[in-house]
Description:
Cofactor: heme b
Domain Dyp-type peroxidase N-terminal: 63-207
Catalytic activity: heme b + 2 H(+) = protoporphyrin IX + Fe(2+)
Largest sheet: 5 strands, antiparallel
Helix content: 10-25%
Structural class: alpha+beta
Strand content: 15-25%
Shape: globular
Radius of gyration: 22 Å
Subcellular location: Cell envelope
Number of domains: 1
Family: Belongs to the DyP-type peroxidase family.
Distance between the termini: 33 Å
Amino acid sequence: MSDNLEISRRRLLGTMGAAGAAGLALGGAGGAAGYAALADGGDDGPALAAVGAARVPFRGAHQAGIVQPPQACGHLVAFDLAPGAGRKEAVALMRRWSAAAERLMAGEPVGGSDSAVAKDAGPCSLTVTFGFGASFFDRTGLVARRPRELDPLPVFSSDRLDPKRSNGDLWVQIGADDALVAFHALRTLQREAGAAAKVRWQMNGFNRSPGATAHPMTTRNLMGQVDGTNNPKPTARDFDRHVFVQPGGAQPWMAGGSYAVVRRIRMLLDDWEKLPLKAQEEVIGRRKSDGAPLTGGTETTRLDLDKLGPDGRQVIPADAHARISAPEQNGGATMLRRPFSYHDGIGPDGVPDAGLLFICWQADPSRAFVPVQRKLDRGDALSRFIRHETSALFAVPGGPAEGEYVGGRLLEA
Length: 413
């Protein structure tokens, strides 16, 4: 991702000095560079550390926040247009949001009323991503431009969905490697919404922080499992075809865009943690220690789905999550998973409300998420330990070119 990083000229004004910064290592999938102070000939004081200086461009063929490594902090927010608001108000809103997002991702204040929450930090890999729900097209009189891919997701038997925390006219995904930078973006965009749109629901998530591991590695979820091993790589030959809408489709405004399925999946951690290690590994189909398949090798070794043990049974059980969700078991169905973990406290019964804010990206949900989830719904051993509590689907248009705002090709075509 080094092509997406720019070094900000802003300085680190907090307590981290050059000596302290030099001893840390930048972990996660975002890169293996150190925190060594960056030379800059401007202001006095130590240069902004690498984590703070990392900047993701706002403009490009695709919106930011899809192919970039998941950041340490995230906010997912759905908005509904206010009563009486329509296409005109949506145009003004997306113009405001796009202008604000571009400044925020550059590590710059937004207007004279900026709250200064992120004043001392750099961009910190901030990304802001915008999407439209199916209901947005009804509200703006653009039903003829609503993509087929936004048809409602089917109902799955394991769903226990809260409609108040599902769907929405508009969706914003915020990610950053600093919690204050992420909150600042959230608060700014909520304020910029003004009277045009109101928050429908909000969810807050997190991932491992850069530098927490000795070297870049796949993150773990709250079950302690390495999560994301089989994610398609942007360097793969057919990555764009699976993840992004190609030009020439029925809705030209979606070229370069993607479809985001968002699911809040509660993990029943008390039940899970009662399982012995061997049983946990058989539920997943991978070793907990390093994410390698039960059939051997390393984390990236291909699953040997035909391998039998000394007892004549499949080494990777028939209902193991890794087996059922494998692309080769689903006609090659491929999606890019980019989740956050969440923890919303502990209830009166002592049970944690925690799990995964599952986000997956694909060119067509009916060919990726839907068939895989149908198969998981029928026989995944992991289903006993999770509960799908919210669901949403959004059309995320391509990135804006110079002079454009996100969604302009839809709203002004």
